[in-house]
Amino acid sequence: MRFQVPQFLEVEDKIFGPLTFKQFIYIGGGIGIAVTLFLLLPKFLAILIGLPIIAFSAALAFYRVNEKSFIFMVEAFIRYFLTNKLYIWKKEERSPVAKGEEAKPVEQVFVPKLSESKLKDLTWSLDIKESQNPVTEDKTDRL
After folding, report:
1. What mean pLDDT comes out for the span 52-74?
2. I want to staple 60 with a disulfide (CB 3.0 to 4.6 A). Which of 15, 26, 65, 107 is the partner?
3. Taking a C-beta distance cutoff of 8 angstroms, is the pair 31, 54 a contact?
4. In this model, does residue 101 exceed pLDDT 70?
5. DSSP letter string over the chain?
6. Alpha-carbon distance 36 to 80, whole Å?
7. Which residues contact 92 (CB under 8 A, 6 or more apart)?
8. In whole angstroms, what is the distance from residue 65 CA to residue 69 CA?
9. Considering the domain boundaries, does residue 111 fall inside one?
10. Domain count, the chain
11. Tens digit of each residue's pLDDT (9 = 90 or more) over 113-140
12. For residue 78, which phi and psi values (nearest 5 degrees)?
C-alpha cells in the first residue's frame, strides 16, 4: 500500500494573493490601526504615530532574522524584559593588607639572549641534521 508523504512542510500556503494568512493579519492589523488613528487624531499626530505602527506590522509580516520570522525576536525581547533574571557574582577572596604595607612589585625574570655565534651554531646544526635525515615524500599523498 502506497502513502503520499507531504513535502515542503515549512512553506506556508499563500491564501490572499502573494500573502500567507499570518502576513495578511499583520498587514491588515497595522493598516487598520493606522486608519483608526488617522480618523480620530489630527493628521500630523496620526502620521507621526501611524508610520512606526505600519513599519512594525510590515516587519512582522516580511522581515526574517536567521531564517525565522521577526515575531520570534519580538517574543524573545518581551520574554527577556518580563522574566526574572539571575545575577551571579563571584566575590574574590582578598587577603587584608595593612596600611603601612604596600604590594610588592612583581620581579621580572631576566632571559639571556643568544649571542650571534651561538645562533649560527644552532642553525648550522639544524641544517646538518635535516640533510642527514631528509623528509621522504609519500606518493600516496598526491592522490
Report:
1. 92
2. 26
3. yes
4. no
5. ---PPP--TTSPP--BTTB-HHHHHHHHHHHHHHHHHHHHS-HHHHHHHHHHHHHHHHHHHH-EETTEEHHHHHHHHHHHHHS-------PPP-----SS--PPPPPPPP-PPPPHHHHHHHHHHHHHHHHHSPPPPPGGGG-
6. 31
7. none
8. 6
9. no
10. 1
11. 656 677 777 776 777 666 666 655 555 5
12. -65, -45
| Range of the structural domain that residue 62 is part of | 21-82
Chain position carrying cell 515575531 = 71
- Is 41 within a domain? yes
Residue with cell 522574566: 83
Residue 108 cell numbers, joined: 621580572
| Residue owning grid cell 639544524 | 126
pLDDT one-digit tens code per residue, 27-40: 999 999 999 999 99
Which carries the bigger pLDDT value, residue 113 or residue 41? 41
